[in-house]
Amino acid sequence: MSLPRPRPGLVIRYSFLSSHEARAGATEGRKERPVSVVAAARVVSSGEVRAFVSPIPHEPPNDPATSLEIPSRVAWKLGLDAGRHWLRLDETNAFTWPGFDLRPLIAQ
After folding, report:
1. Cis, peptide link before residue 98, omega less than 30° from 0
2. 1 assigned to some structural domain
3. Tens of pLDDT along 24-33?
């Protein structure tokens, strides 16, 4: 199975390392979650593609200015489960595409 090209708006499953986990010394995310690719760029010197992703959690943000709520109809079309979802704008991870932290989508 081939992987899609990383492009803004693509929703994937990824082992996301949050900033509070990193501050606690973790080097890997503790939870696989849906994330959205927010940017992707080819590194000229190596030819690698770097993908930048932001998490899509269920938890409402502490500061509403840091997230965008995803309308339920859009969430459904993206294959997200029921419930409310927010795209976090204040958290990102970057990795070489495809990375070892990518996970298969789970059929719903």
Report:
1. yes
2. no
3. 999 988 888 9
